Amino acid sequence: MILGAGIGSRLDPLTRSLPKPLVPVVGKPVMGHLVDLLKKHGVTEIMVNVQYLGQTIIDTIGDGSSYGVPVHYSREDKLWGDAGGVKRVENFFRDGASDEEPFLVIGGDDLTDTDISRIVASHREKGAVATLGVTPVEDPSEYGIVVADGDGFITRFQEKPKKGEAFSNLANTGIYVFRTSVFDYIPAETFFGFGNNVFPALLDAKKPMLAVPSDAYWKDVGNLAIYRQAQRDCIDSKVAVQLPRGATLSETCVTCAGATVDGEISDYTVVGANAVVEAGASVRNSILWDGSVVKSGTHLENCVVGTGVTVASTHGIFNGLCVEAKRPV
Predict the structure, then answer these.
(1) Which of 48, 107, 242, 270 is the most exposed place for a label (fewest CB within 10 A)?
(2) What ranges do the domains of the chain cover?
(3) What is the pLDDT of residue 109?
(4) Domain spanning 2-224 has what CATH number?
(5) Are the CB atoms for 243 and 26 separated by under 8 Å?
(6) pTM score, whole prediction
(7) Count of CB atoms within 10 A of residue 318's CB?
(8) How many CB atoms lie within 10 A of CB 78?
């Protein structure tokens, strides 16, 4: 299951017209990169929960046929939390499956090339009820933190500790593998979280909960600085991703299918599908979403231009976000 129902307030105003799982990374929705990863590791069916701008996700990702794996959707009338959202599709995971057959949950705004097969194999081998992919981080205050014993089983869990109060630097990446018995710890029709509710309950019940460390690439692209960095990391091959069909990489710039570049682009610029950089325009270290237009005489640097937005200026624009002004109802 890919968690896709969040609002993405930390990326506002970029998420006023596009939900966070669809923000493009080198021209492909971050959720599209996740679907690629799941298919690579043998996942044969995917559920996505949607709420904020949910129809946009459904229209963009579709039934999964363009990715080669079936994708289904759970429409939420309101936000239920990550565990609450998974609970609402319990039958999807229980149907015909034994408790020994694991299922995977991953955040819809994660960019990663984590070895999911290794996490699942460890989960099976050690008989865990829940297994968490974890990674060392510099600032634990942004994450759920775990402490594990010598066999890898979690003994303590701390959700987003205050600075200086973390008892570990092993961060929960939001990549989970569960037995279906985890549903016994999630009440129906209740806002419920894995970090705040489910994991502490499993620890209290002394259920085996495993941490699988990894130094693979993993970033939550939920804030602007990391979103920008993710583009550079993909171009520099720090994370293994597939460019969208028809996209080309030239030096440090990506140009997607249907784009027209008559002006100058440089320094980690991404030009989305059917976007236009007119002659006499220059774009540096910027991200142009699909269908955007940079008019002649305009200079952009360190900018993000939203889907279908036209930018025209006789002055340079630096560190700008050029997006639709209104949040959809």
Answers:
(1) 242
(2) 2-224, 243-322
(3) 92
(4) 3.90.550.10
(5) yes
(6) 0.94
(7) 12
(8) 8
